[in-house]
Amino acid sequence: MSLPVLLLECGICKESVPSGPYLPALYCTPDGKHLALRWTLGWCNSCGHARRVEDWPSMEALDSETATALKVAGEPQDQLQDWMRKKLEDIETYRRLQPLRTTPNHCLACGGTDLLAWSYDNDGVPLATPHKECTGLFRQVEDPDGMRFMLLDESDLFSLDCRDLGRVQNNVAPSTAGFNIDDFWGPDFSSERSF
Ligand SMILES: [Zn+2]
Ligand SMILES: [Zn+2]
């Protein structure tokens, strides 16, 4: 499958980053399940590039998402049910993991945490894109090189503290066989196994 590539590009310094397509990103949770990793594009001072960066939700954001989801779910729209159930499950999982997540957001490319957060409007259009010493704004443009081929039916997998765990096949039930839970958590978390 090939897809057109859109870039976000700074009008002044011409730094750019693909706005998509990307492989999905997942966390491997302590019980060996997979959770969609929320990410956005931002600036990583460690890489010196615009990158995919984590967008870990605050408890307030989760509360507000739950309220919105339940409001929609309360309406008789049967076709939304599976999607809604999954969404509420994900929100609940983020909520349970919240106390164990002690690190700031990371760059998905290098793991660095020296990030400059970008802000977007409701349509995902960048409003502020701090980077380097440049005052330019990143805007969406089409990549002159055209298409990117996406042949991999895989996802990027990360530990909860955003260590890169390689890639996994999509739609295959995760297995913890061969893994020790400390592979995901490190010894600091060895007492946190209640879920
Ligand atoms: Zn710039
Ligand atoms: Zn980085």
Largest sheet: 4 strands, mixed
Strand content: 25-35%
Number of helices: 3
The order of strands across the largest sheet is 4-3-11-12
Helix amount: 10-25%
Total strands: the figure is 12
Please tell me how large the radius of gyration is.
18 Å
Bound molecules: zinc ion
Write down the secondary-structure element order: EEEEEEHHEEEEEEH
- What structural category do the secondary elements indicate? alpha+beta
Can you walk through the features of this model?
With about 200 residues, the protein is α+β, with helices and mostly antiparallel strands. The chain folds into two domains: about 130 residues, no CATH class; about 45 residues. It has three helices and twelve strands. The strands form four sheets. A four-stranded mixed beta sheet has the order 4-3-11-12, covered by helices on one side. Helix 1 packs antiparallel against helix 2. The termini are far apart. One zinc ion binds next to loops.
Provide the descriptors you would attach to this structure in a database record:
single chain, four-stranded mixed β-sheet, alpha+beta, 19% helix, 195 residues, 2 domains, binds zinc ion
Quick synopsis:
By secondary structure, the protein is of the alpha+beta class. It has helices spanning 59-73, 81-97, 181-185; strands at 2-10, 16-20, 25-28, 34-36, 39-44, 49-54, 115-116, 119-120, 126-128, 138-149, 154-158, 164-169.
